[in-house]
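Progress note, sequence design subtask.
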């Protein structure tokens, strides 16, 4: 397992602006990262070149920057929205961002692109109808991804932030069932396991990953304090990382250990960011070292 980090580790800035993805790749490369996750979702919901007419040129510049710092993109994060709401006023544009993310993943050589399922909140059969609509939506995405040489990894979600409403695929059972149904027709579908999400939901990580098994293709690794202080670096929150890593020792997983820590540098002045990124590499390597004990 290799240490990786999302471009989101350096994106949100203290003044509310967003850093350049090119700068994120540069700083992460200088800090010692050699594997990264390209977060297309960040680039879809904020004003970035990804939303413009010349987005492919921008992707090529990111590829060149990654090559310059000997960085491999081993996974990415697609844009997502609740596509079960077929009357969403921006549906056409949001679908375009998802399509661009799949093509962009192919251009960057990304083998697994993470996406979220959606939830039919209006249905009296929420799980049944959410599954049906998610399958209908993802089938053409998987077909396009296959042409681009990309796999789609569906992520486990959480729903305490919308309680008492429930969200589809918060349980490993629902997620495995969805992926197995899609897997009957597609070879390029798998699961991304977000450790923070399952910890927030008080799920047994060992039992969850045992059920997920070989379907596991990607990870999201982060810590949390509460719903307003999430996606922080391990050991800065409530998760017991020694227990988490003991579980990972027993997991047959061939992918990467990928930080998704949006808040790690968001309050730091630029002068402190390089050291914070180097520290995240130290933390990540320490965690991976626990697997060898």
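Output:
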């Amino acid at each position: 397992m290799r240490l990786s980090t999302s471009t989101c580790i350096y994106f949100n800035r203290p003044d509310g602006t967003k850093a350049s993805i090119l700068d994120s790749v540069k700083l992460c490369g200088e800090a010692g990262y050699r594997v990264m996750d390209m977060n297309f979702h960040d680039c879809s919901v904020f004003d970035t070149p990804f939303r413009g007419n010349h987005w492919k040129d921008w992707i090529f510049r990111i590829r060149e920057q990654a090559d310059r710092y000997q960085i491999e993109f081993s996974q990415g994060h697609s844009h997502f929205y609740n596509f079960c709401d077929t009357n969403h006023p921006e549906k056409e544009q949001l679908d375009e961002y998802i399509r661009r993310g799949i093509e962009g993943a192919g251009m960057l050589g990304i083998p697994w692109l993470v996406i979220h399922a959606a939830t039919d909140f209006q249905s009296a059969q929420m799980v049944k109808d959410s599954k049906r609509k998610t399958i209908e939506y993802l089938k053409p995405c998987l077909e396009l991804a296959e042409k681009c040489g990309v796999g789609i990894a569906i992520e486990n979600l959480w729903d305490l932030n919308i309680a008492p409403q429930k969200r589809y695929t918060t349980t490993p059972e629902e997620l495995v069932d969805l992926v197995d149904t899609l897997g009957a027709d597609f070879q390029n579908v798998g699961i991304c396991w977000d450790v923070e999400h399952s910890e927030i939901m008080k799920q047994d990580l060992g039992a969850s990953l045992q059920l997920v098994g070989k379907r596991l293709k990607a990870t999201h690794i982060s810590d949390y304090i509460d719903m307003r202080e999430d996606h922080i670096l391990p050991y800065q929150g409530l998760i017991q990382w020694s227990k988490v890593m003991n579980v990972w020792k027993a997991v047959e997983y061939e992918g990467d250990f990928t930080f998704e820590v949006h808040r790690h540098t968001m309050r730091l002045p630029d002068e402190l960011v390089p050291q914070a990124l180097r520290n995240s590499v130290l933390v990540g390597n320490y965690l991976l070292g626990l697997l060898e004990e």
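The domain at 3-290 is CATH 3.20.20.150 (TIM Barrel). Work on this subtask will continue into the next period as scheduled.
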